[in-house]
Amino acid sequence: MTENAIIVSVSVISAAIICVGAVRGATNGDSAVATKALDCMARQPEQAGNYQVNMLIAIGLVESIPIIAAVIAIVLVFANPFVK
Questions:
Q1: What kind of fold does domain 3-76 have according to CATH?
Q2: pTM to 2 decimals?
Q3: For residue 50, what pLDDT is reported?
């Protein structure tokens, strides 16, 4: 294997690891947000609409993190400064 092939393969594997870590973190964050929102809705059913809106906004913000991480990882694979 040439040096460029090794660098590209390590970059692809690293990008995959980054994406998997970001997805796992987002999954944990989504479940925590949903759990807390459902607890609040169960305690105060009259405010359930407000909690649901806040939950959906928070889940959207949490979901943006793995998307950004995946884009950065893909950009670093294709715009690798170490490939000659």
A1: F1FO ATP Synthase (1.20.20)
A2: 0.79
A3: 94
